[in-house]
Amino acid sequence: MILSLIRHAKSSWADFSLGDFDRPLNERGTRDAPKMAKWFTDDIQEKPILFSSPANRALSTAKYFEKELTPIKLNIVDDLYHANLQDYESLILENNHEKHIVIFGHNPTISQVAEEILKTKYVYLKTCSICQINLIEPDILVGGLNFLKSPKELT
Q1: Pairing relationship of beta strands 130-137 and 2-7 according to DSSP bridges
Q2: Cis ω before 138 (30° cut-off from 0)
Q3: What's the pLDDT tens digit per position in 97-122?
Q4: CATH code of the domain in which 75 resides
Q5: Rounded Cα–Cα distance for residues 153 and 150 (Å)
Q6: Domain count, the chain
């Protein structure tokens, strides 16, 4: 099973009247998300199942990927906003029969999930970064790193 963890693209802090949940992507985020979506989908082997936090910045990022993967349906998972490690683990284990799942979420938890599965303490997902893991043992969430790619690496 392939697991792709994607941190939301860069969000805006320009409007302080918006709560954390409602913050949109900023200019860099709206530039990076479609670029990463295109790169990610160019060589994709298996059409994935998409799961996203409902927060505006994560959902907006996920929609760029959904557009590239049409007719793939995006699944919104409320528990991915303010999620903990167990929330991610439950979602992955519930779907470990799939060939490829993609989760759009937030730091610090999304980086912690990668560290836990890869059994390392040196994974940090920058905004709009993709960490792809080959789950060698999907039932116990043990895997190896396929790649960790950030938008800066595409320029």
Answers
A1: antiparallel
A2: no
A3: 999 999 999 999 999 999 999 999 99
A4: 3.40.50.1240
A5: 6
A6: 1
